[in-house]
Amino acid sequence: MKYVRHARCVRCGAIYEAVPALTTCRCGGILDIEYDYEAIRADFSPADLDGCRDYSMWRYRPFLPVEDGSPPTPLRVGWSPLYRADRLARTLGLRTLYLKDDGQNPTSSLKDRASAMAVVKAREAGADTIACSSTGNAASSLAGNAAAAGFHTYIFVPARAPKGKVAQLMIFGAAVITVDGSYEDTFALSKEAIDRWGWYNRNAAINPYLSEGKKTVTLEIMEQLHWQVPDYIALSVGDGCTIAGAWKGLKDLCAAGFIDRLPRLISVQAEGCCPLNRAIQTGEPWRPMEENTLADSIAVGVPRNADKALAAIRESRGLAVTVSDEEILDAMRLLGRTQGIFGEPAGVTGTAGIKKALELGLIDPDSTVVSVVTGNGLKDVQSGIRAAGEPMLVPPDMDALLSAFAQRRIAP
Ligand SMILES: *Cc1c(COP(=O)(O)O)cnc(C)c1O
Ligand SMILES: [Zn+2]
């Protein structure tokens, strides 16, 4: 870890050596990994990436807290496509929109970036078992990435996790404990079990390395945009680790001289569960909320990474936009119909927020905006059907087909 200096508590400033099994500060604050940016700047530049054939998150090793000798994870994580989304941009009335489709990761969500990091750090820590609690994607990505690397996993999920995600866990051979309670209860039980059995902890808000994995999403976006900084990057927000990681990646690039300014973040949450956005909008400390949204991956009433997420949104002079479940379903249809991308509800919430921000006049239509699609819609087929409806059903008969078409005003 040539470029890692140490970890620093975001709350009290205490400094810790960056050992592999690092968790939170004694004061309860979350740690942040700090690098020697002068050294990175001296040794490494955008031109070094031009010839790099490693099309995965590990192409950014100088920016990552892993030992030089640590092998990369077996599954290809990262380097998801960044599409220029002109058809959707036109529909929304926005000049330039890009979509980063992180549903194309090996287990179909952005969480693979954090889980791949967890696997590397668990190996460095000498562990053979990794555990986490999750609303679904952190779990399924851990189970998949860990299985490929030969680790055991214990996964605690709340009872409401969609079937697609639970199926992933079972297929990847995880020991799955479905907790009959909220995400909060699930998290608490996982913590107790981890302490008791000494497993490696893949809870993103506890383990400071995981947002370092997540930050590769913005490292990639910037490389894919040839280091031209957009005006906004929109992300859906639950615990807050993703948006905090995205911001860390941008700040790292700035500190190392790869980019010369920073975009503004758009934090998008569901109306039925938006404790972080409410804190931004009111200027008051965040308070717990109920978890009333179909976007299960961001239904987090007690966000575990509030400190880092709120700091990121504020530092970027970011926007906090809340959207209804109807607006999320609408964004699912829009992304599918204009761009051929099927996102899960939390996966498209960022895009729903861009639409809302334009409608409210919060962003200039001439802006350049990047929306991260954080998870694939096949994980939650029920919500897809809810967004788009059921197909027509006809007997095997041409007259019946004609009348079904007439009824729906379809003219082939
Ligand atoms: C986890 C997740 C998020 C939000 O990430 P946080 O770190 O919890 O804020 C958004 N979308 C999807 C699909 C996720 O799985
Ligand atoms: Zn502290």
From TrEMBL:
Instruction: Give me the residues that bind pyridoxal 5'-phosphate, please.
Output: 137, 374
Q: Does the keyword Lyase apply?
A: yes
The alphabetized UniProt keywords are:
Amino-acid biosynthesis, Lyase, Pyridoxal phosphate, Threonine biosynthesis
Q: Which domain of life is it from?
A: Bacteria
* Residues annotated as domain Tryptophan synthase beta chain-like PALP: 77-375
User: By its UniProt entry, which Pfam families does this protein fall under?
Assistant: PALP (PF00291)
Q: Which reaction does it catalyse?
A: O-phospho-L-homoserine + H2O = L-threonine + phosphate
Q: Which residues carry this modification: N6-(pyridoxal phosphate)lysine?
A: 111
Give the Gene Ontology MF terms in alphabetical order.
L-serine ammonia-lyase activity; threonine deaminase activity; threonine synthase activity
The EC class name is lyase
Residues folding into a coiled coil are none
Q: In which pathway does it act?
A: Amino-acid biosynthesis; L-threonine biosynthesis; L-threonine from L-aspartate: step 5/5
Q: What is its EC number?
A: 4.2.3.1
Gene3D superfamilies according to UniProt? 3.40.50.1100
Q: Which co-factor is required?
A: pyridoxal 5'-phosphate
Please report which protein family the annotation says this sequence is part of.
Belongs to the threonine synthase family.
Protein name per Swiss-Prot or TrEMBL: Threonine synthase
**Species whose genome carries this gene:** Intestinimonas butyriciproducens
Upper taxonomic classification of the species?
Bacteria, Bacillati, Bacillota, Clostridia, Eubacteriales
